Amino acid sequence: MKGKHMAWQYHRRLSPVKAISFDLDDTLYENVPVMKRAEQHVAQFIAQKWPQTSAFDVKAWRALRDQVAAEDAELASNMTALRLATLEKGLSQCGVNNAEQGAKEAMEVFLVARNEVDIDAEVHAMLASLAAKYPLVAVSNGNADIHRIGLGDYFVGAFQPSDEHRGKPYSDLFQAAFDHLELKHPSEMLHIGDHPISDVFGALSFGAQAVWYSPNDSLQTPVWLPHASIQDVRQLDHILPS
């Protein structure tokens, strides 16, 4: 995914890298338009299937999601569980019978739409090049499916929140990826992501190295200092040893 500028910079020395983890949403592709389409799609589906919910438009669903997230910090880092809880609460408030089952049905509709992602050919080329040199894993709080979005061939694993694993910035997903990769030390893993807390702080807290992908900022120094900052994922060629 390309940023406006081609700036990149080191903040501290990188240790030898033996594996790379990537965030997905807003790191390897622009997720905002994907989510807008998916949310509109599922809101229309719900309104048609349960007419008593017609007052719940996209804005109302987003506001309810924010409310649910504010009530449960751990739920806020698990986008699948958060959205499912939001759907169930909204359907229940509107008097839909068996809101739990209805939420699951609406969630399946949402997941189909949210996995309709366009990924730049340059990102495919970058991942293919890196996958030939390093084992790659996806570490994401979201619910994109690496196979459904066309990235499955590059990754040896994908780690997302579940009943057993909390989302970033908690260390659960990083630990699961580390165990899967059979590395000796967390610092052998380099994580790339766009979020200064979930990705940078989360990776550093676990003991991994971190590259902050910041396409829309002027590479200002973040609160938690990553090992490097980039504005274009192709700049990883400059960051990593050849």
Helices and strands in order:
Elements: E1 8-10, E2 19-22, H1 32-49, H2 58-71, H3 73-76, H4 79-93, H5 99-114, H6 121-131, E3 136-139, E4 157-159, H7 172-181, E5 189-193, H8 196-206, E6 209-213, E7 228-230, H9 236-239
Parallel strand pairs: 2-3, 2-5, 3-4, 5-6, 6-7
Antiparallel strand pairs: 1-7
Helix pairs in contact: 1-5, 2-4, 4-5
Q: What does this 3D model show about the protein?
A:
The protein folds into 2 domains: 8-30 and 118-239, HAD superfamily/HAD-like (Rossmann fold); 32-114, Up-down Bundle (Four Helix Bundle (Hemerythrin (Met), subunit A)). The protein contains 9 helices and 7 strands; from the N terminus they run ββααααααββαβαββα. The protein has helices at 32-49, 58-71, 73-76, 79-93, 99-114, 121-131, 172-181, 196-206, 236-239; strands spanning 8-10, 19-22, 136-139, 157-159, 189-193, 209-213, 228-230. With 242 residues, the chain is α/β, with parallel strands linked by helices. The mean pLDDT is 93. The protein has a 7-stranded mixed sheet with strand order 1-7-6-5-2-3-4. The chain is elongated, with a radius of gyration of 19 Å. 43% of the residues lie in helices and 11% in strands. Strand 5 (189-193), helix 8 (196-206) and strand 6 form a beta-alpha-beta unit.
